[in-house]
Amino acid sequence: MTKGITQYEVGETVDVFLLIKQSAKGVTTTGNPFMSLVLQDKSGDIEAKLWDTKDEHEKLYAAETIVRVGGEIHNYRGKNQLRIKSIRPARPEENQTIADLLPSAEKSTEQLLEEVLQYLFEMENPQLQRITRHILKKYQQEFLTYPAATRNHHDYVSGLADHVASMLRLGKALCDIYPSLNRDLLYSGIILHDIGKVFELSGPIATTYTVKGNLIGHISIMVTEIEKAAEELGIDSEEVLLLQHIVLSHHGKEEWGSPKKPMIKEAEILHYIDNIDAKMMMLDRALGKTKPGEFSERVFALDNRSFYKPTIE
User: Fold this and answer.
1) At 27, which helix (H) or strand (E)?
2) 205-221 b/e (C-beta count within 10 Å ≥ 16 → b)
3) How far is CA 122 from the centre of its chain?
4) Ramachandran assignment for 230, one of left (phi > 0), alpha (psi -120 to 50 degrees), beta (any other)
5) What's the pTM?
6) Given this model, what pLDDT does residue 140 score?
7) What is the mean pLDDT of residues 267-280?
8) The dihedral of CA 165, 139, 147, 278: what is its sign?
9) Fewest beta carbons less than 10 Å away: which of 97, 242, 301, 312?
10) 67: nearest Cα among 89, 48, 99, 49
């Protein structure tokens, strides 16, 4: 089995095909142009710098380009980076495809949809079920293929559906422990809370933020979608307001991007479920690249901490 780019250790040399996930130009303090690249294969991604670039390099090494890269893995501020020694676009006769280099959910889209629909079928509140079904059906294809983010967590093909399915499993367990939670409201909030990302993000390949994503954001987008769905279905009840509040507050704090803090129990617990699932995914990824008895690379979204991987099983 071929080794993925995230499985190389510091000091190892590489000569591999990678997909440019992100590409941005910059200028050093001395005025020399360079490019920051994020390169990926099925195992994940790695950052790299391309020095002394020219104008033509910006087009040559744009996002969604497959390149052959030679270089060496080194450690920069607690994180692995690829020091590029040679790079060129892949040639047609080399038969490299984007699909071969895209990380994706372990479960198929059919399995993910079946799992999410099971929770939808379990809902007993007709208003919540109708709104959730209406929106899910409307954006089903995008929901099943889009990532949940550009970086950090569930940033791969079908990452959004994978994230939601995992959150639903957590939600079910917590409803069993705390039966005072409204199960239907929590399930509906989990399924809908991030669907606005199908507008906020550009898609599963070389994901970036859209103009609408930058100017409005997935939270505000989804609040509008819930209102539109309710109008189309002729629903005018408290459920609409509660769902909108859950979406508005799911980041937990204003400084984390939520226009409102949670003010109902289901909104509070959904925020924690969202946080747990995102952070566990980031930890699994970082520790998956770490040997037992050693510390992981720094995880920026977790206060830039390194985590120890115990030797016990």
Assistant:
1) strand 13-27
2) bbbeeeeebeeebbbbb
3) 27
4) alpha
5) 0.88
6) 96
7) 96
8) negative
9) 312
10) 89
Q: How many CA atoms lie within 13 A of 112 on its CB side?
A: 26
Q: Which residue has the tokens 């983010």?
A: 149
Return the C-alpha torsion angle 77, 80, 85, 91, nearest 10. -140
- pLDDT tens track for 224-253: 999 999 999 999 999 999 999 999 998 877
32 phi, psi to nearest 5 deg: -85, 130
User: Cα 149 vs. chain centroid, distance in angstroms?
Assistant: 3
Pairing of strands 44-51, 79-89: parallel
Spatial contact of 271 and 251, defined as CB atoms under 8 Å apart: yes
CA distances from 114 to 109, 154, 204 (A): 9, 19, 21
Tell me the H-state helices in 77-157. 98-101, 109-122, 126-138, 140-145
User: CA 209 to CA 194: how far, in whole Å?
Assistant: 14
65, 35, 37: which is closest to 51 by C-alpha? 35
* The token pair that represents 92 in the structure block: 């047609």
Q: What are the tens digits of pLDDT across the range 18-73?
A: 999 989 888 888 888 898 999 999 888 899 998 888 888 888 899 889 999 999 99
- Do residues 250 and 267 touch, judged by C-beta distance below 8 A? yes
Contacts of 170 (CB under 8 A, 6+ apart): 273, 276, 277
